[in-house]
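Final report, results section. Input specification for complex C-07:
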Amino acid sequence: MEKYIFYTLAFSMIAFAIAAVNSRKMMRSVIYLLFVLVGIAGIFFLIDYNFLAAIQLTVYGGGVIVLMIFSVLLVHHIELELTLAKTYKRIVAAIVSAIGIGVFLQVIYTYDFPVVENYKTTSTADIGEKLLSYGDGGFVLPFEVISVLLLAAMIGAIVIAKGKKT
Amino acid sequence: MDIRYIYLIPFIPLAVFLLLGLNYKRIKPSVSGYIGVFGLLVSTVLSYYTAYQYFFVPGKVNGVYKPIIDRHVWMNFTDTLSIDMGLYIDAISVMMLVVVSTISLMVHIYSRGYMKGDGGYTKFFAFLSLFTFSMFGLVLSTNLFQIYIFWELVGVSSFLLIGYYYTKPSAIAAAKKAFIVTRFADLGFLIGILIMGYYTGTFDFETLNNPEGSSILNWASTSFMGLSVITWGLLLIFVGGAGKSAMMPFHIWLPDAMEGPTPVSALIHAATMVVAGVYLVARLFPMFYFVEEGFALSIVAYVGGISSLFAAVIAITQTDIKRVLAFSTMSQLGYMMMALGVSGYDGLEGVGYMASMFHLFTHAMFKALLFLGAGSVIHAVHSNYLKDMGGLRKNLPITNITFLIAALAIAGIPPFAGFWSKDEILVAAFENNQLLYYIGVFVAGLTAFYMFRIYFGIFWGKEKQYDHPPHESPASMTVPLMILGVLSVVVGFIPFSEFVTPDGKGFEAHLNYPLAAIAVTVGIIGIVLAWVFYKKENNLADTYAKRFGVFYKWAYHKFYFDEIYLFITKKILFNGVAASVALFDKKVVDGTMNQIGNKTVFTSEKIKGIQSGKLQDYALAFVGGVVVLVMIFIYFWTE
Amino acid sequence: MIAGISIYEILTLTTLLFFIGVYGFITRKNLISILISVELIMNASVVNFVIINKYLYPDALQGVIFSIFIIAVAAAETALAIAIIINLYRQIGSVEVDATETMKY
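Structure output:
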């Protein structure tokens, strides 16, 4: 059962990803991206990282995508057709990407991963403890740094987007 | 003896030049004349003081006049080879100081009258000062390179002064001609200097001229085309000297240089600059004498003798009095060269060298006087041509007498200065080379003839119709004439051989009576012939001119030298060689360069797309590069 | 772990997503589209972190925590990028890459 769900998710994600980078309508492009992000959240659910899936949905599905939609609506006509790059450039990019995919997959498939069979469930409490622990392997310092970074980014975004008062 | 004050001698005229040249518009003409004359007066006094100091205060050391040298290294190439700047005081440079300062002072005073009312009065004095500075620097040079620098400076000032009337096309052409011809000869000089520097390792006169020095003793070490390279160097240096001194075949500029104002002709093209070539050979005399048994020196002698004869023949036929004087100058310079060429080195053998310098000295006086006298005549009648003159002796009494003195001096009539020096030259030639001696005697006769031809033509003969009656020149012009007239008489009595000899020892010269008698007789014959031909208006001269026919025509046209030069330059060089060279230059040299440029532009046009400045293009290159690198590391990188 | 699905399949999926993102980044002409491509690349790497954590080191949580950080940074980045884009739009009236090249000259 889980296998089919994964395949369904995987194919739809790839299809939406391709659609997202090829669509000539800005709005659709953003929505295709939303589907890919939701698909990723689905994969997190499948491997029992529920908290992560929740974050993925709230931050990406709820935050980033909404932000993008607003910006698209601010700067574009909804019907605007986007221009695409020159054909030869797209072909070159496609070839480079294809070679990259080939190399990556070849490396992945020739490497024997020491996979540990497990069906462990990770609770939010475990993550929270790890995040706030200041002992060995604790992440309290990066956590604080990230919080400051977010604050700075927020202020910066406001300042930049507001522009000069005229 | 502290000789540093001698630096003032050249630098005062330089200061005057800068003062007048930079304040050309601000200084009133009346003031600038005085500034020029006063500056030069100081230099002249210092020059005479130097002469006195050099010859009498230290005097001879062990019976020899030693050069006094003040040298400062300027550019150092190797241990021995360096370009220095400094002073070289010896007998001939002191003598030249006296000559240059005296003549220059006279010309300065004279110019105040002659150039009065000219628009470029201040400029004229500035140029004169520049020339005087350069000439002083030239005679005081310590080495070949320093002399070359000042050599070119006198060339430039000569160019400026010949082209002084720059609105006159003929003056411009003459200035260019003088500059280009001498410049061409100076190319030989420069190559000669470089050969000397390379093969002897020094430019310094003191080292070069040391008879026991390596540069003279080792002359045979390297040879080229059957002659020692040192001889080649000396010959090339002589080419430079011949260019300045208007020897054959570089003489063509000198007659044309008469386009300049007459005082300039007197100063530069009669007395000082043109003797620079003679001075240069005299300066390197030990080298010329010792290297290859004096081969180069014999060339100097023959070139001098032939030039002297050649110029004298042309001088007979010319009708422009300044041109007659120009060819006369060339002839006398040939005399000096010839005397140097037949000279020996030790003791009495050095009579030729002494005679050459003596003649240089006396010639400067009477030739300057002749030119200034001619200037006075031209000033009075406003023409250069003999046909416009005649019977002027009553109108210009002072000019008449001084001109006569100078003409007698150059004709070699005792007791005037020219007699003494010319006699020594003929003695030297007689003892060493009979052929040159006969040429010399013949030229002496010709000299007397053409000189009195113009004398009688100007001051005697039939009076011509003048627009306004000619009158004697102002005192500023006649006073220098009188001073030079006196000098032309007395300088012959200076016991020159006591002071100026190649080895510095000095000897007592004696008059060789038979030779002197011959020379004087020939001179008198010349004068008498001129008297017969030109004293009264008659057609004897024309008759004889017809009798000589072709030869007269050739001489009148200066043996077609100018035409030959024009043919060679215009027809052969410009059309033949230069055109093909220009084609080669345009097609091959420029073509190569243009192609390189075009290809560069073309290639950059092609590849500039790579440097698009677009982030995404760079990202593509980056990703592609990463992929390629990863592939290399995985598949081709084997430990 | 997902029953019946090996790590290879999941890594294949992330690789594809990653290079689709790269392709988009290179070819798109619009700043927001480029941003979308960047999101794709980031999410592919986030999934990689999580999958490797889950399949190889189930007892550790580093991969998960890094993913959280990446998501936080990505959110900050998106916010700033959107701010810049909007400001740019105010300045030059366009968010096309070509239009921003006027700065070069």
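Chain C touches chain A through 73 residues (CB under 8 Å). The radius of gyration of chain C is 18 Å. This concludes the modelling results for the funded period.
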